[in-house]
Structures are given as structure tokens and as C-alpha cells.
Amino acid sequence: MKNLLIALSCMLAPSVALAAGGGMEAYGEIVAIFILLAVVVFVISRLPTVEEVNHSAEFRRRRVMNWLPLGLTYAFLYMGRYNLKVSKFAFEEMQDSAGGALMSNEGFGVIFTVGVWVYGSAFLINGPLTDKLGGRFAILVGAGGSAFANLLMGLATWSLVNQGPMHTAIGENFITIFSVLYGVNMYFQSFGAVAVVKCNAPWFHVRERGVFGAIFGILISLGVYFAFDLGYKIVNHIGVAEVFFIPTVMLAIFWIADYFLVRNSPEDAGLKDFDTADASSGDDGPQLGALEVFKKMLTNPIIITIALVEFCSGFIRQAPMQWYRTFAKQTNEVLQLKGDFIYDHWGMWLCVAGIMGGVLAGVISDRVFQSRRGPVAAILYLGVTLGSVVLYFTYQIPAIEFAGVKLSVPGVMAILISMCVIGVHGMLSGTASMDFGGRKNVGIAVGIIDGFVYLGTGVMSLTYAYVLPQEQFDTSGQLIGPVTQPENWSPWPISMIIIGFCGFALATRVWNAKPKGKGA
To answer: What is the distance in angstroms between the CA of the first residue and the CA of the last residue of the chain?
Structure first.
């Protein structure tokens, strides 16, 4: 675990470099995250060894060299995915030809919906491709394609801001152009999750996947931090075009690292493969055809139930992540939430929530429920539901002063809900997909499950685009109208209560589910 601590420490190096323009406050956030990581690694290192697993020191070292660059690539894919939300605050201050915001709530909802539905449906192609050609192939294609798409979005933004070539055409067709570019980005982004799970499945036994899922969740959470806190600092201190250019550069760097370090299996890295005890255990036959695997997965009640739970996760995970800061900013005249401790450190708090949710879910799953994923998902979804109920009764509470710090009650609830749902997402998309898909067919399994995640996100985005109040501006460009009144935002917490309860009910149906090998 000493090597793991060193590796996790190295993950913060890109953050330090990117935060250089953000002042001492950015360094304070990084130090806080590093301290939390150190505590998490210490706790995990003190856990007793699982009896079924006995890897050599050489194997463990090589495994770190495999998942660390892979995980960092996925973190920067997140940065190149959620930068659209970060750019919204700059684009909504620019006016279109009709005098409205260049990217309104509705406009953002349309672009994001296109992106997530492209992502969700891409598994029909990318899942079978990954099972056939391997996770290494998938991460290289995904990172390279997303880097190119972010480069195009950066060039379009630069032209718009600096009155460059085609800036008039881009401004007049902004929603259409960015819907297409973001859709292309999200197609390549969809390789990321499939690649991560496909690469890691042969390297981890079922009994150690829960705890590893917690560690890998840390990488994803750092990606959220890169996307939001560092993304906002990039927009404020450098420029809005750079929020697309910087992920382009980072993805290019890690594409090179993946090419030289990532391997599909221990055997490909010169080590010996082992039985991972998942659904592929005992299956030494040839790889089934894609249609046969799809049929097998879509008739598996456990896979389908997990996919439906993750549909709910896709809705719930993005509801606070994408909309809390918008709610706080647009109702600021009444609630004074903008500028509170959570609003100003949104990415850091999401990162902390992701780390704690992932670690809680992973450790409990492996150590309390013998690597069953259903009980953890049900317990955390109960937390999501209760947290959403509390949010409904508290979302109109103005910011309060506590020990000299300005705090937001709805902000605290949004973070707690995020912690629970990120824990569920890591357990099911990242871990249960390995268990029940098996290392041979995990590409299609995670494609189906993650496809449902983003189908749920698309439903959330399209729903909020039309049920939440729309921006209106006076002649001086100031925000006015229903969007500034908190009571008009009630669909936000109400929808989370309904979907949270559905997720809880579904998760209880896989409470006792465990993977069975071919001979079982």
C-alpha cells in the first residue's frame, strides 16, 4: 500500500500545475484533498487481506502501473466532458442575435441531452468492439477522439470570443454546432467506462473489486474536481476557450502513457493470469458473438435490474451536480447562496463526496456483505431518498453564517445526496458489471449498464430543460422573472424524491445476488 500512496500522491501533480493561475486558495483545496486521500489509503491499507486472494508483490506493482494511467485518463475524460457545464456561465453572459443568453438553461439542456443520449446509445457499437479488441484499444480511441472533439469546441469558442473566422455563423447557430460537437465528444467519451472496466476485470478477483472500486472512484472524483473547480479557475483566470484546450492537452499526454503502460491482462504484461471468480469463471471456450452476448445479458434479470437502478443513478447523480450552482446563482437575490463555502468550492466538495461514497460502498460491500453489491446500493439509495426529502423542505432556506463561514443548507444536502449516489454508481457500473458480465463479456455488460446511466441523465436533462423556469433579462441584461424565485424550482427536489425511491425499490431486488461461474 506504500506504492499506492505514492501513486495517489502523483495524481495531484496535474492539479498543482493547472491551479497555478488560481492562487493560494486552489493550493488549499489540493492540500485538503491530499490529506483525505492519505487517510483513505491508510484505512484501506489496515484492512486484513482477503483469504481468497494472494498476489505477489511484483503482480501488485505491475497492476498499479496498469490502472493508474488508465484511471487518470478517465479523470481527464471527465474534465473534457463536464467542461460544457463550466463554460455555460461564460456563454450565458454573451447574448445571441435575439438578445437572450447564448446558452440558456434550455439551450444547455438541449446540448447536454444530445450528448448523453449519444453516449448512452453508443454502447451498441462500443461494447462489442471493446470485448473483441480489448480495453487498451478502447481507451486509446476514446481519449484520442475526445481530445480532438474538445479541440474543435475550443477553436469554435476562441473564434466566437475573439471575432475570428466564422464567428457570426457560430453565434447564429451556436446550439446546433455545439450539439453536434458535444455529441461527437460524448461518442468517444463512451469508450472510457467500458475500457476501464474491461482492462481491470482480469486484474482483480471478485473479493477485492469492492475495495478497488473505492480506489478507482477516487480517480473519478478527482476528474470531477478537475472539471469544476479547476475548470472555473481556467475560465476566470485564463479564458473560456482554454477550458476546452487544456483537457485536449492532458488527454494527449495520457494517451501516450496508456500506449506504453496499459495492458489488457496480466498475461499481456508478462505475468500469469488467474481465476477472478466472476461470471466468466470456468468459461474457457471461444468468445461468443456480439448478438449472442447481448441476448444473454438482456435476458439476465440481475443485469437488467442493475441497469434500471443505474438509470435512476444517471438522473440523480447529475441533478445536483449540474444544477445546484445554477439554482444558487439564479436565486441569489433571494437566498444569497452564491459565494458560500460550498458554491465556491463545488468541485472540491463533489470530489470529497465521491471519495467518501466510493470508499464507504466498497469497503462495506467486500467486508460486511461478502462482495455482494445489492445491499450497499439499497442502503445508499435509501440515503438518496431521505436526503431528497430533506432537500425539498430546506431548499428555500437562505445561506447562514456558522463559525464565521457562510453555509448553504441546500448545498449541504446536494453534497450528501451526491455522496450516496456516487457510491451506488461505483458499485454497480464499475464493479457489479465486472462480476455479472464476467471478464470475457464485461464490455457489453458495462455498455448496457452505463448506457442506462446516461439514458437516465438524458431524461433528467430534457425534463429540467422544460420544467425548470427559464431565464428572462431586463434591458440592462439583469436576470429577472420566475427563475429568480426559489419556489419555482420545486420540480428539482421533487423529481429526486420520486427517482430515489424507485432506485431503492429496484436495488432491494438484487440484495442476495452474487456472480456464478459457468459450472455453477
So the answer is: 34
Position 382: which residue type? L
Q: How far apart are CA 20 and CA 479, in angstroms?
A: 33
Distance from C-alpha of 191 to C-alpha of 133, rounded to nearest angstrom: 12
| Model confidence pLDDT, tens digit, residues 385-432 | 999 999 999 999 998 887 778 888 999 999 999 999 988 988 887 777
Radius of gyration of the chain (CA): 22
Best-predicted range by mean pLDDT among 36-50, 117-131, 204-218?
A: 117-131
* pLDDT tens-digit readout, 442-471: 777 877 888 888 889 888 888 888 888 877
Say if CB 77 and CB 194 are below 8 A apart.
Answer: no
> What residues have CB less than 8 Å from 131, skipping those under 6 apart?
198, 287, 290, 293, 440, 441, 442, 443, 444
* Whole-number pLDDT of residue 187: 95
Q: In terms of DSSP H, where are the helices of 430-480?
A: 433-467
Is residue 283 within 8 Å of 427, Cβ to Cβ?
no
Closest by CA position to 19, among listed 7, 34, 4? 34
> Are residues 106 and 250 in contact, defined by beta-carbon separation less than 8 angstroms?
no
Dihedral, 220, 436, 208, 266 alpha carbons, nearest 10: -90
Domains of the chain: 2-46+53-265+290-510 (1.20.1250.20)
CA distance to 84, 93, 321, 418, per residue, from 346 (Å): 16, 20, 9, 12
Q: What is the mean pLDDT of residues 350-357?
A: 86
Residues of the chain above pLDDT 70, percent: 85
Indicate the average pLDDT of the chain.
Answer: 82
State which amino acid sits at residue 73: T
∠ CA(446), CA(451), CA(453), 5° rounding? Answer: 100
